[in-house]
UniProtKB/TrEMBL annotation:
Catalytic activity as recorded in UniProt: AMP + ATP = 2 ADP
Gene this protein is translated from: adk
Major enzyme class: transferase
SUPFAM superfamilies, A to Z: P-loop containing nucleoside triphosphate hydrolases (SSF52540)
Organism this protein belongs to: Simkania negevensis
UniProt name for this protein: Adenylate kinase
Intracellular or extracellular location(s): Cytoplasm
Length: 212
């Protein structure tokens, strides 16, 4: 089957958590543990040309800590994944897709279900806003992200997570849900994740069975 003809669903793990909870760190480690593909929706938006219409739309929402509207989000995301497949960078027959930052609304979850075959949902839990903010401010120094610098924008992103995204967890079956305390050192978070979720996550340790 040619790369462009993939019409199946992407076998996916979803990462949830407030800004600063460590979605990116955990996703990268899971992806690298078995050559799987980590896709951060925030990174997808940040890679858009600033003068494109989607890029301008992203700035107008992202700079305020708000979510980009659902329709555009899904369009940009689905187009990006298609491009990854057609250029051979993401190989859906062999790799799991580690999705960080999507879905963030119920409506995104509903549309996304047409694209993915869900393996697991990892919810990184960290209610301590002060410590999340400290993590983001450290990241701002390293990565220079505008939305990590402004305290008002950080606060807005936390609120958006609490009000719009957290409830999306209820959309997914409990037997696929791994809730992990993210208010710990990264190694401990990973230890807990593999301790709780070994049976679900063990699929990442070997390549997918090839279709015959
Ligand atoms: N699924 C999504 N739906 C709408 N907007 C999104 C989505 N993912 C990312 N964004 C936009 O990109 C910004 C940065 O996302 P991300 O890097 O994942 O941030 P965070 O560290 O807050 O989790 C968000 O504040 C939002 O404007």
């Amino acid at each position: 089957m040619g790369l462009k003809e993939f019409t199946g669903r992407y076998k996916s793990l979803l990462l949830f958590g407030p800004p600063g909870a460590g979605k990116g760190t955990v996703s990268k480690i899971l992806a690298e543990s078995g050559s799987h593909f980590h896709l951060s929706t925030g990174d997808v938006f940040r890679s858009l040309p600033k003068d494109s219409s989607a890029g301008r739309l992203f700035s107008s929402y992202g700079d305020k800590g708000l979510l980009v509207p659902d329709k555009v989000t899904i369009e940009v995301w689905a187009g990006y994944v298609k491009d990854l497949i057609s250029t051979g960078r993401y190989r859906p027959h062999e790799q799991y897709l580690i999705l960080d930052g999507i879905p963030r609304t119920r409506s995104q979850a509903e549309v996304l279900s047409n694209y993915i075959d869900l393996v697991a949902v990892i919810a990184l839990e960290m209610p301590n806003v002060q410590r999340l903010t400290e993590r983001l401010q450290r990241r701002a120094q390293i990565e220079g992200r505008n939305d990590d610098i402004d305290a008002g924008v950080i606060e807005k992103r936390m609120e958006v997570y609490r009000k719009q995204t957290e409830e999306v967890l209820g959309y997914y079956p409990k037997n696929k849900m791994l809730r992990i305390n993210a208010d710990q050192y990264p190694l401990k978070v990973l230890g807990d994740l593999f301790g709780t979720g070994w049976e679900v996550l063990t699929c990442l340790s070997h390549p997918m069975i090839q279709p015959t």
